[in-house]
Amino acid sequence: MRKWVLSGILATEETYLSHLEALLLPMKPLKAAATTSQPVLTVAQIETIFFKVPELYEIHKEFYDGLLPRVQQWSHHQRVGDLFQKLVRQKERYKSRAAWALLYKPVDRVTRSTLVLHDLLKHTPTGHLDHPLLQDALRISQNFLSSINEETTPRRQSMTVKKGENRQLLRDSFMVELVEGARKLRHVFLFTDLLLCAKLKKQIGGKNQQYDSKWYIPLTELTFQGPEETEPLTIPQVPDEELDAMKVKISHLRSEIQREKRANKGSKVIDRLRKKLSEQESLLLLTSPSMPLRVYNKNGKGYGFLLSSDYERAEWREIIKEQQKKCVKTSSLTSMELQMLTNSCVKLQTVHHIPLSINKEEDESPGLCGFLNVIVHSASGLKQSLNLYCTMEVDSFGFFSSKAKTRLFSVSSPPPQEFEIELEGSQTLRLLCYEKCYNKTKQNKEDGEGADRIMGKGQIPLDPQTLQGKDWQRTVIPMNGIEVKLSVKFTSREFSLKRMPSRKPMGVFGIKISTVTKRERSKVPYIVRQCLEEIERRGMEEVGIYRVSGVATDIQALKTAFDTNNKDVSVMMSEMDVNAIAGTLKLYFRELPEPLFTDDLYPNFAGGITLSDSVAKESCMLNLLLSLPEPNLVTFLFLLDHLKRVAEKECINKMSLHNLATVFGPTLLRPSEKDSKIPTNPTQPISMGDSWSLEVMAQVQVLLYFLQLETIPTPDSKRQSILFSTEV
């Protein structure tokens, strides 16, 4: 495990050294030109631009050269602590304010090294000779980061106002404001005495960044609950199809940029592609948030923001309410004071860029694509026993969405619950803990929230280097006095999507659908009929049905029951959370040795959906569908009718036809391993720019096409078989 952690730091050091080498290349000719009659830059300017770069290169080169042979000749007794000690001691010389301003990246390296030292200590026995050395290196590194924070935070986040009072910036973020039904991108600043909403001006002719003030509310006058007559916020919804089309374009542009880089094409081509990418990402960030956050001034005038997650909304509410307890004086500003405050935001801001690809570092992780297994072991810290549940959110394409929900549990004895969450370029896992309220009439008036109350929240980064191993990683998420213990394990795309035939010939999972229906003497497998019947009975109004993950242990229990033909399976299902039943159905289709749409016909479906002529497309797609083997066709039509009925309750369950196609498309169409186009390099996390993303979008479009057809004409013989057979 120690060698695995060190291999990760070697890879990042190698990347960092290559960046420093690239900086050093132009330094020598610029220095030589500085002594001529027509210098490009003065010596002082060169010293400023390349501040400490040669020294940094030497420090990291020495560290890398020392670490590499030790990792290559690894043994259980190998020592590396002395190398880390020397590295962090040399970095201490850069903790002056001037160095901090110019050396954000080196300080970021210290932060990463600190995390690596934590990991190394976890896997180094206390009796090992390396243990005291690593402890000392960690102490030095932590002291260094603390001193940086002490020196820089007041300078960057505060300003003096009249009468010598100190106004500090507590939080800032780019947010979407809803203005007269239109979405507008804003930069919101929370100070110790007021909330300021500003608009970033367009930069023209190389001018410095500037802000325009849109409005502000003193914290003493700010409320989250408007007057009784306040109209509900009407949120303009962007169709899921449009959002998905943006994601397709983004994935395609990312792939093109990587292809051009590998081909060493001119920078103009890449710049043009990056501009298009930024436009699409900006549009997606503007149109995707839909969770309202409203604030009101003392006159009852409301301002509405749209956020992507309950976590973010809770963060803003908490920090504002906490500061309001400390704020006793109303701050009204003159127009001049407001202008000065707005101008100061350029220097005070902590969030400098909209979260777009163009604003990311070259070596920054593109995020993880695959499946994350999460076990919620326990929750402790509450003084009284409550009915609690947790939800999990992960990010994708710059915004968060809820992916899993635990069963209700009492804080005194929460049972372990396991989930499988799909990741799409994800970098963070968030956890929210709610108290369940059974009084349906008790509706929170703030933004039309439900009555369930957030008791705590926390998050952990999804670090590719830490999670690329096959071992479970244990962690604790502290949140508002509650501690939730988790284990997480990541499975990359190429391993998680294999269709593996079952070794249990009498089971149903991993067995050909024709074999199962023949054995059961039915048209549709028993497992499909049972799951759909139970979901239709009590899951049609469940928010996020099929999208929200069920408890993995419940899903595995149902899988075993169906595989062993357990007579009590219907009783088990009636006692389980409906999301576990939905998860069992999805798992059944995902583990078929061949997709429901078959390997042979998959390329034809993928080609047919791209036809531009609607008549030709319908003819092609219907002919392909009716070419499926009868058990596949009958099962698909049975499922299709059910999914349409689910979508009819979209206003309650939030599952549109498109959402359902997104969930089931890859499950029903993804080809077997031998036909998959997914790359199989296990050393590289699969990014959203890979061909997999575009392939999945095509699978979604195929299923969506059939979901949107009002009727599917089938030959009389098959229609009779499907509709009137008592064996279905």
Describe what this molecule looks like in 3D.
The protein is α+β, with helices and mostly antiparallel strands and 728 residues long. It has 26 helices and 16 strands. The strands form three sheets. Strands 1, 2, 3, 4, 5, 6 and 7 form a seven-stranded antiparallel sheet that branches. It is globular. Mean pLDDT is 79; it is low at 95-105, 148-156, 675-690 and 719-728. InterPro entries: Abr/Bcr, C2_domain_sf, DBL_dom_sf, DH_dom, PH-like_dom_sf, Rho_GTPase_activation_prot, RhoGAP_dom. Residues 511-705 form the Rho-GAP domain. Pfam families: PH_19, RhoGAP, RhoGEF. It comes from Scophthalmus maximus.
> Unreliable runs, pLDDT <50, ≥5 residues?
95-105, 148-156, 675-690, 719-728
β-strand percent reads: 15-25%
**What's the number of extended β-strand segments?**
16
Helical amount? 40-55%
* Strand-pairing-aware structural class: alpha+beta
Instruction: Please tell me the overall pLDDT.
Output: 79
**Largest sheet, strands/sense/barrel:** 7 strands, antiparallel
Overall geometric form: globular
DSSP helical segment count: 26
Question: How much is the radius of gyration in Å?
Answer: 29 Å
End-to-end span in angstroms?
Answer: 52 Å
InterPro entries: Abr/Bcr (IPR037769), C2_domain_sf (IPR035892), DBL_dom_sf (IPR035899), DH_dom (IPR000219), PH-like_dom_sf (IPR011993), Rho_GTPase_activation_prot (IPR008936), RhoGAP_dom (IPR000198)
GO biological process, one term: signal transduction
Domain DH: 1-86, 102-151
Domain Rho-GAP: 511-705
